[in-house]
Predict the 3D structure of the following.
Amino acid sequence: MRGIIGTAGGIRGVIALAAALVSCAGAPEKTVDYTETSVTLAPGEALVVDFGEVNATVGQEWVLSAEPDAVVLGPGEERSRYLGEDGMTGAPSEVTYRFAPVGEGATVIEFEYRFRGEVPEDPEDQETARIEVTVERSPTALTPPR
């Protein structure tokens, strides 16, 4: 019985392994389309904004134009998954932005579509996204005395 967890070192190892596995799982995520105007997140839930297919090789991009309140959400992390085959150029990518939860409250995030680094000249090609984000209060949060 002492082989694996019979010693204090073995127990610490099992605890460290369990903690590592939990941290790999990450926070739960809620994915919304960039056309949504508002979203409510549960405590600890990350926000993922989905922009669908974007082709950066021809100059398409979505940029974060207004950062969220740092007390509510962390900075946006752009993620992309290339849809072309290995060695192929010119294919689009699936693009998302992920915002980790920081605390409760409300904030706004804004994005702007750009083509070759600029806002398109044609008003019909100009796009923005504005999402109001509310992070609910944790039911276990302590309420200050009155």
Remarks:
- The chain has one domain: 27-135.
- Strands lie at 29-33, 38-41, 46-54, 60-66, 77-82, 93-99, 105-115, 128-135.
- DSSP finds two helices and eight strands in the chain.
